[in-house]
Design brief:
It is a single chain. Helix content is 84%, strand content 0%. It is mainly alpha-helical. It folds into 3 domains: 1-250, no CATH class; 255-455, no CATH class; 458-519. It is globular, with a radius of gyration of 24 Å. Mean pLDDT is 86; it is low at 515-519.
Length: 519
C-alpha cells in the first residue's frame, strides 16, 4: 500500500473535515426550514444520540485500530497488523450489531421514559442501523490510517457528507410533499424527522461502501500454531481496548453537553411535551446550528498547531511553544471575536435571513442565539488549548476539564431553564464554556509553564470586534428601513467586516511601531 507523508495525510484530512463542516451546514439549514420546531425536536432527539455514537466510533475505535496497526508495522510485524484488522472487524462488528438491536427494540420505551418524547421513537429506530455502519467505518478507516494512508478516510468522509445532504434532504422532502402516503397514526413532522434520520443512516452506509472500494492491505498468512495465535489475539485485543477506553471516555465527555441539553430540555422547558419538543427543536435546529458554525471553522487552527507544538514540546523548546500558542490563540480570536459579537447583536436578523418561513421558531430561538454569541468565543478558544495539551501528552486533563464543564452545564440548566427557558439553556452553555476556558488556561500553564494573557494578547481583536458589532447593528438599523431585510442583513455583515479589518489593520500597524500605544 502506498504510504503518505504526514503533510500529505494532514492535507487530505483537513480538506475533508472542512468539506464535512460545509456539507453539515448545507444539510441542517434547509432541513430546519422543512421540519420546523416540532419536526426538529424529533430529529434532534435521534441526532443527539447519533453524535456520541459517531464521536465514539470516529475517535475511539478509529484511533485504537490505527494505533495498534501502526505499532505492529513499526515492529516489522505485518502479520500482527493483519490479525488486528480481522479481530477489529469481528469484535466491533458484533458490538455495533448489538448496539443497533439494543437501540431499535426498546426505542419506544426509551424515548418515553428517558427523553420524555415518545413521538421521537420512529426517528430513533431509523437511526439504530447507523451504529453498526459507524463501527465498521471506524475499523476500516483505522486500518488504512495505521498503514499511513489517509486518502480513504478523507474520500469516505466526503462521500458520507454528500450522502447525508442528498439522502437526508431528499427523503425528508419526499415525505413532506407526499403526506397522503403516511400510515395511519403517524403525524407528518414525526415521519419527516424519521425520513431525515434514515437519510443520515444511509449516508453511513455510503461511507462504508466507499471504504470497501479501496483495496485493503493484506499480509501473507503465517504458519503460527493455533495456541500461539490465540495468545497473540488476546494480546492484540488488550492493546485495542487499552487504547480505546481513554479515548472513548474523552469523546463521550465531549458530547455530554448535547445529551444534558437533550435530557434537561425535554423535562424542564414546558409542562406539555409537545410544547417542550417545539422549543427544543427551535433551539437545536436554529440557534445551535448557527452557534456551531464558527467553532467548526476555528477548530482547524487547533488541528494545525498540533504537530508543531508536539515537536517543540518533545524538544523542550519553551520559546517555540510560547510562539505557537500565542499565534494559534490570536488566529482563533481573529475570526471568533467578530463572529461571536456579530451573532450576539444580529441574532434575530440572521435567523430571519436563514429561516424566513419559520417566524415562530425564530421568536423562540433568537434570544437564546444572542446569548450563544458569547459562548462562541469561549468555545473557539478552548479547542486550541485542548489540542496543545493533547500534543503535550496530557489528554487526561482535557477529560477532567470537560467533566467539570458538563457538571456546571447540568447545574445551570436545572437552575435557569425553569426560570428563563431557552435563554437559560444558552446561559448555561456560556457558563460551561467559560469555566472550561479558565480551567484549560490554568492547566495549560501548569503543564507547559506558558501563561497566556488572552485579554492583552488579543486586545486588538477584542477592540475591533466591538467596533464590528457596533457597525453591524448600526448598518442594519439604517438599511432595514430602506431595502429588503435579507439584503439589509448582508449589508450589515459587510459593513461590520469592513470596519473590523480596517480597524485591525490600523491597530496592528501602530503596535509594530517602537512606541506601544496599546497593551
Amino acid at each position: 500500500m502506498k504510504r503518505q507523508s504526514v503533510l500529505s495525510g494532514s492535507v487530505w484530512l483537513i480538506g475533508s473535515a472542512l468539506l464535512a463542516k460545509i456539507l453539515g451546514a448545507i444539510f441542517r439549514i434547509p432541513l430546519t426550514a422543512m421540519l420546523g420546531g416540532t419536526g426538529m425536536g424529533y430529529f434532534s432527539c435521534a441526532y443527539g444520540l447519533f453524535l456520541p455514537v459517531f464521536a465514539l466510533s470516529v475517535t475511539g475505535i478509529n484511533t485504537a485500530v490505527s494505533a495498534v496497526t501502526a505499532q505492529a508495522l513499526a515492529r516489522n510485524d505485518p502479520q500482527a497488523a493483519d490479525r488486528t484488522a480481522h479481530l477489529a472487524q469481528r469484535v466491533f462488528g458484533i458490538c455495533g450489531l448489538l448496539g443497533s438491536l439494543l437501540l431499535f427494540l426498546p426505542a419506544e420505551s426509551f424515548c418515553a421514559h428517558l427523553l420524555h418524547n415518545p413521538q421521537a421513537s420512529l426517528a430513533v429506530r431509523c437511526f439504530a442501523p447507523a451504529i453498526w455502519f459507524c463501527c465498521i467505518n471506524a475499523v476500516l478507516r483505522g486500518i488504512f490510517e495505521g498503514h499511513h494512508n489517509m486518502q480513504p478516510t478523507a474520500v469516505s468522509q466526503a462521500a458520507e457528507g454528500i450522502g447525508r445532504v442528498v439522502c437526508g434532504l431528499g427523503l425528508c422532502r419526499f415525505v413532506c410533499t407526499h403526506p397522503a402516503l403516511l400510515p395511519a397514526g403517524i403525524a407528518l413532522p414525526e415521519a419527516a424527522a424519521a425520513a431525515a434520520i434514515a437519510g443520515v443512516t444511509l449516508s453511513t452506509a455510503i461511507g462504508t461502501l466507499t471504504l470497501l472500494l479501496f483495496p485493503q492491505p493484506k499480509c501473507p498468512a503465517s504458519a503460527v500454531p493455533a495456541a500461539h495465535r490465540a495468545k497473540n489475539d488476546r494480546m492484540l485485543l488488550r492493546a485495542l481496548f487499552r487504547t480505546l477506553l481513554p479515548v472513548a471516555a474523552a469523546s463521550l465527555v465531549t458530547n455530554l453537553t448535547t445529551l444534558i441539553d437533550l435530557a434537561a430540555g425535554m423535562r424542564l422547558l414546558a409542562p406539555k411535551q409537545a410544547q417542550a419538543n417545539f422549543l427544543y427543536g427551535a433551539y437545536a435546529g436554529l440557534a445551535v446550528t448557527v452557534f456551531s458554525l464558527v467553532p467548526a471553522v476555528t477548530n482547524m487552527f487547533g488541528k494545525g498547531v498540533f504537530p508543531a507544538f508536539a515537536e517543540s514540546y518533545a524538544r523542550h523548546r519553551t520559546d517555540e511553544m510560547q510562539a505557537h500558542a500565542e499565534t494559534v490563540m490570536q488566529r482563533t480570536a481573529l475570526l471568533a471575536l467578530p463572529a461571536g459579537f456579530g451573532i450576539a447583536v444580529l441574532a434575530e436578523p440572521l435567523l430571519t435571513m436563514l429561516f424566513p418561513a419559520r417566524p415562530a421558531e425564530i421568536a423562540a430561538a433568537s434570544p437564546a442565539l444572542s446569548v450563544l454569541g458569547i459562548a462562541v468565543i469561549f468555545s473557539a478558544w478552548s479547542y486550541p488549548l485542548f489540542s496543545m495539551m493533547q500534543a503535550a501528552g496530557h489528554a487526561g486533563d482535557t477529560v477532567r476539564i470537560m467533566l467539570a464543564g458538563a457538571a456546571v452545564k447540568l447545574l445551570c440548566n436545572l437552575l435557569l431553564i425553569p426560570r428563563t427557558g431557552l435563554r437559560g439553556m444558552a446561559w448555561a452553555t456560556v457558563c460551561c464554556y467559560a469555566l472550561i476556558l479558565l480551567l484549560a488556561l490554568r492547566r495549560f500553564r501548569l503543564r507547559t509553564g506558558i501563561r497566556l494573557r488572552l485579554l492583552r494578547l488579543c486586545f486588538c481583536e477584542l477592540f475591533c470586534g466591538g467596533l464590528c458589532a457596533a457597525a453591524a447593528i448600526a448598518g442594519y438599523t439604517k438599511l432595514t428601513a430602506q431595502i429588503p431585510q435579507r439584503i439589509a442583513v448582508s449589508g450589515a455583515v459587510a459593513a461590520g467586516g469592513a470596519v473590523y479589518f480596517a480597524a485591525y489593520a490600523i491597530l496592528t500597524h501602530l503596535r509594530r511601531k517602537p512606541q506601544h500605544y496599546f497593551p
